[in-house]
Amino acid sequence: MTGKVSSELEALVSLDLIGPDGVALRIDAVLDTGFSGFLSLPFADVERLGLSFEQRQAFQLAGGILVEFDI
Q: Alpha-carbon distance 26 to 17, whole Å?
């Protein structure tokens, strides 16, 4: 896999995502050293691909604040 570096000095790789109904979308994903095993997508892309959320989960941010996200 090869990638590129953005003007903001972020490491990017292109990914082809395919939803359950065959809808395809190419995105440039930012590589994060704190990778947690999940890919974060804007809600519009989740809808476009026809994806559904499996659960809601609480995450602790760097400042100690707990927030909930659909995953």
A: 6
* 54 half-sphere exposure, CB direction, 13 A CA radius: 2
Look up the pTM and report it: 0.69
**15-25 pLDDT tens trace:** 999 999 999 99
From 43, 42, 40, 67, select the one nearest 56 (Cα to Cα). Answer: 67
Amino acid at 18: I
Q: Cα separation of 6 and 17, whole Å?
A: 21
How many whole angstroms separate alpha carbon 62 and alpha carbon 1?
30
Contacts of 7 (CB under 8 A, 6+ apart): none
Q: How far apart are CA 66 and CA 60, in angstroms?
A: 4
**Integer Cα distance of 20 and 36 in angstroms:** 23
